[in-house]
Write a structure and sequence with these properties.
This protein is of the alpha+beta class and 843 residues long. A 9-stranded antiparallel beta sheet has the order 1-2-3-4-5-10-19-18-15. Strands 6-7-8-9-20-17-16-11-12 form a 9-stranded antiparallel beta sheet, with no helix packed on it. Strands 21, 22, 23, 24, 25, 26, 27 and 28 form an 8-stranded antiparallel beta sheet that branches. The radius of gyration is 29 Å and the shape is globular. Bound molecules: calcium ion (3 copies).
Length: 843
Amino acid sequence: MKKATVLSLLVLLFSACNYGFSQELKLNDLEYFETQGVNVLVYSNLFTGGFNDEKTAGIELIHHGVRTAQGGAVRLSSTPEQWDLVPEIPTRKVDKESKSIEATLRYGDYDFDSRVVVTAKGKGVEIAIFLDKPLPKELEGSAGFNLEFLPSQYWAKTYLMDGRINRFPRYVVGNTITRPNSEKLKQFKGYVTYDDRGTGRFIEPLPLETGRSIILAPDKPERLVKITSHEADLMLFDGRVLAQNGWFVVRSLLPAGKTGKVLTWTVEPNAINDWVRDPNIGFSQVGYLPSQQKVAVIELDKHDKPLEKASIYKIGNDGKATEVFSGNIATWGDYYKYHYVKFDFSSVNTPGIYYIKYGNFKTNNFLIENNVYDNITDATSDIWIPIHMNHMFVNEAYRVWHGEPFKEGYLQAPPNTDHFDLHGQGPTTDTKYKPMETIPGLNVGGFFDAGDFDIETGSNIGVVQNFVKTWEYFKPLRDQTFVDEKQRYVDLHRPDGTPDILQFIEHGTLNLVAQAEIIGHMAQTLSNSVLDNYHHLGDAASITDGLPYNPNLGPYEVAPDGQSSGVKDDMWAFTSRNAGLDLRAATMFAATSRVLKGYNDDLSARTLQQSKRLLKEATELLAEQPQDSLGWRAISANMTTNLQLYISTKEQQYKDKFQELLWPALDKNVSFTILTALEAIPHMDIAFKEKLHPYVVKYKEYIDELENDNPYGVPIGLGNWARSGTIVSFGTTICFANKYFPDIIDASHAFKTSNWLFGRHPYHNYSLVAAVGAARPKKVFYGNNRADFSFIPGNVAPGILFRKPDHFENYDDWPFLWGQNEGTIGGNTNYLIFGSAFKNLVK
Ligand SMILES: [Ca+2]
Ligand SMILES: [Ca+2]
Ligand SMILES: [Ca+2]
């Protein structure tokens, strides 16, 4: 009896210890601090994005499955914006012994280095900042340690600063002051994010609270974090004062004149005992054809025990649900952080309304019916694309999406100009226009690039080609949109007797042909000249004042005749000549000339003329350039261009050149090249198709390998921009391959793309196409209405973004990460092709 009591006491004691240990953060093999429910990442992701601060780097917290904090670093402002300076991180050392990660943070502009050391300590981590030299004078009062918290996960929750109770605001309403611009630290490359309206002053947010200890979200254990600072005040800021994509920032200033350990924080994220993430049951929100294969992929926490069975319930007309199928769960295996199992319910093939039940988890309902895919492209073609028509007024019922933008036209960009959207003007203008002179006539046609409002010429060329392809392969006669180029007016849901796709081709061509005729060659881009109107959110017509810039007027002055202004808001044309781009434009013009004949004969004739001229000039220019300097992108563009030229001209030289480039490219990378080869089939002879056969066999091997690579069987990208685009192309390729080689490529593989887009993917199971997927499309996207936490119907999100070393993510309450949520005109018109090809295949 006594013995037993001692034993049970021992067991109790042992499990108590165990319990204590399980709460402690461990430094794991993937080099981050971990306990069940808490991951603290220390510079697993660096500030290396193409667009400076992408809010995906620094010290990060993944709290019960959600990345709720990031940006942990020495920063130079209290609420860093996208274009504020970010530190380089030249060294990062992981010390298993002392359970610590140390990194050097460097600001080259100020020759300022600091060391950040993060050490596991009990239930949290200690973050210590070391300076080997005192803070540079100019950074005193500016350099501090920041950690940023995701507003959408914290707003409306409570916080305590030194015991004082408060609530995180749903919308930013805070106090600010202004300071002279001379005190503002340099932003990225010297750009300025704000328009000071001539005041010479910048805005500085004041802290919401200050103290030594903050508890965030005591009302929500999943989000509860305690931060204690030992030497300096903690300040809480709301970054949304300066930028809608700002986060809540906890910050301490670094002291002036000190070296050694200058700041210490203890950060303790609460871990819920034995927390296990809910299963993510991935399925097609759009639904299924009765005849198709139906396999749900269930993403499970590694601490979760897979169940043996799942079932399907059918919802009757009386509202009652009945189990109609129960099937076994099959293991797929581990993929990064989670464990994956599959549930095959293909045998359920009666049309109806269903849901999946896995243990206690029920999904939302979905349809099985022959018509489920009929409308998958309508939102994109009827809503998203027309809303992105530039230089037009776009109306929908009672709502105006935007007025007519850029009425003042475009100015010639001055030479040697670097640009924040990854463009530039070379050493000369390459045109007859003087720097800052208006280039008349460019403000016509064209499509906004994405969530921003520039015309990317290369992308617009691709977009027009996508429309031409859609028209020539699928002939969609759909007419739901009124487009009047004379009125510069678009009205959604108002048929006007002309297929919309022809009007899209015409609209894209109008801008591109204007570039060719007026500039003489293609511009790189028509884009914003100042950063403070590049990040514009809202009506595109209000980006500029509609009046041409007049250097004789003072800043913000309007001429007495009301015809010009002194506001430097005009867009610029970046006009450095690129022969490769001209060649691409020449092929696109040849194609549009073909399509527009009989619809707009004048435009058809103009495009043909520009096609011939640019082809001749670009060929001559390219002949002067060294060929071996061409990268694979250029070779691939060149291959497509020669094919398009052959289709348009039927000249043997282009066919030869196309094949000369094609076969080695196929040898090198079959999955990347084969779609172009498949598209060529109708225009080539039988021998071409035969020669392609072994490559299609190789492509089939690639498809099979993907089944082993990940549980979804699609090409998942791990870069800084998620890869729905690649998965869309993968689906299009399968549709084309199945059309020409049905004995090798089975049509069923195309459903992997539709499944992924419509909900069968990691992180959550929402459709990545806005408003498509009747039951549960994503709620927020990165479009020009992102500040409203909304979406533009038909947008395709890049989707599931990989964060190193093992986390997939797609926020559905925070639209502002472009790598997850921004649709582009290029990507969305590619989706139009996939959707059209897929609907054909389904038929
Ligand atoms: Ca852009
Ligand atoms: Ca129409
Ligand atoms: Ca203007």
